[in-house]
Every structure is written in C-alpha cells, then in structure tokens.
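Researcher: Here's the sequence for the chain we discussed earlier.
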Amino acid sequence: MPIYFAYGSNLDAENWAAFCARYDADPACMKPIGPALLPDCELVFNYRSVLRAGGALNIRERKGHFVHGALFEVTEIGWEVLDIKESVAKGCYTRIEHMAITRGGRPMPVTTYQVTPQRQEGFVPPSDEYAQIVSRGLKSFGLPSTQLENAARNQKSQPDAEGVFVYGTLMRGETNYDAIRQHDPEETVRGRARGRLHATAADYPMLDVHEHHEQDVVHGEFMRFTDAGPVLETLDVVETFSGYATDGNEYVRTLVEVDTGHSTTRLAWTYVAADRSIVGERIESGCWRTHRGIEPEAVADQVTGRKDTQPEVIGE
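Model: Thanks. This is the structure I predict for it:
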C-alpha cells in the first residue's frame, strides 16, 4: 500500500479518531511513521470548506520550498475513510503522487491530497478552530507551525533551506561551476553532510543517502542564496532532474543538513542518486577532489562571502 503524507487536520490524532468514530472505523487504520517534508510545495488556504466554516489547507507548487508534514501507513479501509474525509467523491480533493523527503534526506514516493482545480479560489481564511487542530497535529510530531501561520495570514513563508550543497562538478574550479556561479552565491563555505560518495564511469560522483550510510560523510561546499528557486531551475537541468513525479531521473533533488563548522548546521538542497543500483565504486575519502588527487592548495578562494563569520575549514 502507498505511504500517505499528511499536512493538515489529519496530523491530529484526536480529530482523526473523532471522524473515524462517525463511520465506525478503527483509527488504527492509519498509523504514524514520522515527520517528513514535501519538496517544491507550499501551504495555501484557497479552498472553502463548509464543514470547517472557512478555509481548509491545500498545497501548491513552489520551487525551492517544502511543506512540513508526516508519513502514515494506511490500510485499504483507511484509504476509504480518508477519501470520505477529503470529499473525493464530491470533487473537493483528489489523491496525487509525489515524493517526500524523510530523515537523512532519503526520497520516498508518497500519496497525498490536493484540492481539485474547480474547487480552488482566492484566499479563504481558516476558522480559529481549524487552525488550532492543524497546529496541534504539527506539535504532536515536533513540527513548527510557522508555515501554517503564514498561510493563514495569506503571507508567503521564507525559504527554510538556506542554499545548496555541492560535492562534485558544481564545486568551485570544477567543470559545471559556471552553472551555479551565474547566480552569484552570497556565501560559499566548505561543509560536509551525511552520506556515501561513489564514482561513476562518466567521471562525476554520486551521493547515496541510504539509511545504512548515516555514519559516512561526504565533503563539499555549501552555497547560500536568498532565494534558491532560480538556482534550482538551472541545477535541475544540469543534474537531469525532471521532477518528483517523473521516471528516468539520473539524480533526485533532496534536502540534507550540512555541517559548516563551529557547530553550525545549515539545511540545503542537494542531488543524490535516483537509482542506487547504478552507482560505482565507493570513494572512501568522501571527497571528490581527494579522489582525483587535487590538493587543497590547488583550489583558490576556499571560503568566500561573509567575512564576519568564517567557518572552520573542513573537507579535503
């Protein structure tokens, strides 16, 4: 059965149990797995719910952003109950396939719900009761409510990811660096993320963030941007990533935490192997430059950008 990604009232166990009771269904037909992120999406209140006496949450595309939520295992009966709760038969919401990002940056195919185009309208403010239900659900998973609060005020959330993490041909001095340099990163520092680095026959590396590799480290560079959206438009093409609902990607874009030194961790977009079966030999050092015999001194300007907060030099 598909994994369900919830971002609204279904995060709240109390609200879910009350709805199940109305249909004599066991609330355990939907069991929580844990928090996750829905990439390239944002929350929006553009659906008017009679039941909720105001706006109910929806998601829409926004590159470089993500929505906080949680994953659930759902039985066949559970999906039937969810479809009733989301008024699928009435044409209010519909199931869609997407890719969520789990702990450690691992992509996972999921099913979620989105308001149908014919039911969408302009901003519809939610009732206090509905907002409190969603907020309670977020809190139960240890998730922030900032995105919800901004959507409820019809305000766009600021990007939660600060930039991108590159570890191969997109680093400074490498063959594809011009693709990222044209976007003028505000800060570039060396950093490292969890995962295992592999070589390929085409002379570029691939990162694997499988859960078994959480103790491994890959070295690269963190580049900060005020808005990563335009950068990702370019990098998606370079890395042959055509979207989360597309088959045949060589890489898939995900989110990882990057250690930039001095106990500073930054959330960043990066690209990992879409198909783990095609990765080549492991690069034991976790560093693409070291693997190719390039000494640190051969790479000019190892740290650029802000001069007031120089991070610890880590990596090759």
